Each structure stands twice: as structure tokens, then as C-alpha cells.
């Protein structure tokens, strides 16, 4: 696994353990180049899913984009990383088990909003206020930058 700090190609696994809900394996790694430590997660991916974005653009489903939006919405809120992981895993599982090879970006945005609504009211309002401003022309991944602006103001 490439080091995110210095881009060295190899890292050593120092520790490996299942997450609390046992849906992923968490590995602590150390870069063999610069010695930096970082964490990777191993998760089951049931199927390849393509996300249909505005203008009919398509790209492979990327869990990290949901993670980014969700963690920004929950910034400085009393929500644990474990709960965030569960929310994102739940959305991922829903998408992967829907049976469709293609999922509209907008639908993922709705799932994120619904998940946040149950998790934390402030995070939900942050996300929803941005979400509602969105027109068809924009994608849920762009929430991340907008959510950052909104939460930066409050
Ligand atoms: Zn490194």
C-alpha cells in the first residue's frame, strides 16, 4: 500500500483487527520510506456499482466520497467514528444490494440525508440546507465543499 505522505510504494502492517461491528478489518501500517503511520480498511464489496451523475456522466461507486460528505456534516458534533462508519456501510450495503448496476447520484444524496437525520440533527440540517439548494445540475459529492463552507460559518 502506497504511503499517503511520501508516496513510497511499500508499507508494513503493524496491527490488524476487525472493527467493532465486524464488517471491516482495520490495519495499522507504517511506511518503509518515511516511517509515517496510517490506517487502511478492508471491506467486502458485493458488486461493482456505477454512479450516474448529472449530465449522464458515469463513474464507479466510491465509498470515500460518502465518507467525506458525512464526516464534514458531522464535524465537531458528538458522533463517533464508529457511528459514521456504520452509516456509510449501511448506505453502501443498500446500494450494493439494490440489484441495479447503475445508481443515480441523487439517490445516494437522499440516503445520506436520511442517515444523517437519524444520527444527529445539526449534521442533518447542515447537509439538508446544502442539499436543498442543489439543482439537478449538481452532484452529491459537491456537497462536501459546500457543507464545509456552511459548517465553517457556524
Ligand atoms: Zn512514507
UniProtKB/TrEMBL annotation:
Chain ranges of zinc fingers (unnamed): 3-34
Alphabetically ordered keywords of this record: ATP-binding, DNA-binding, Metal-binding, Nucleotide-binding, Repressor, Transcription, Transcription regulation, Zinc, Zinc-finger
Keyword Metal-binding: yes
Domain ATP-cone: 49-139
TM spans (from-to): none
Co-factor remark: Binds 1 zinc ion.
Cofactor annotation: Zn(2+)
Domain of life: Bacteria
NCBIfam families in alphabetical order: transcriptional regulator NrdR
Record function comment: Negatively regulates transcription of bacterial ribonucleotide reductase nrd genes and operons by binding to NrdR-boxes.
Record-stated family: Belongs to the NrdR family.
Protein name (Swiss-Prot/TrEMBL): Transcriptional repressor NrdR
Gene: nrdR
Amino acid at each position: 500500500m502506497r504511503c499517503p505522505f511520501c508516496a513510497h510504494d511499500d508499507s508494513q502492517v503493524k496491527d490488524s483487527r476487525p472493527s467493532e461491528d465486524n464488517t471491516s478489518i482495520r490495519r495499522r501500517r507504517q511506511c518503509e520510506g518515511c516511517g509515517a503511520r496510517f490506517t487502511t480498511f478492508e471491506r467486502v464489496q458485493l458488486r461493482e456499482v456505477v454512479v450516474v451523475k448529472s449530465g449522464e456522466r458515469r463513474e464507479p461507486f466510491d465509498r470515500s466520497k460518502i465518507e467525506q460528505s458525512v464526516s464534514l456534516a458531522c464535524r465537531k458534533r458528538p458522533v463517533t467514528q464508529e457511528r459514521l462508519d456504520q452509516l456509510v456501510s449501511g448506505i453502501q450495503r443498500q446500494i450494493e444490494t439494490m440489484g441495479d448496476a447503475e445508481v443515480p447520484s441523487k439517490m445516494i444524496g437522499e440516503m445520506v440525508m436520511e442517515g444523517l437525520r437519524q444520527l444527529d440533527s445539526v449534521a442533518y440540517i447542515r447537509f439538508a440546507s446544502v442539499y436543498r439548494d442543489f439543482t439537478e445540475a449538481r452532484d452529491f459529492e459537491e456537497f462536501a465543499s459546500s457543507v464545509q463552507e456552511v459548517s465553517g460559518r457556524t
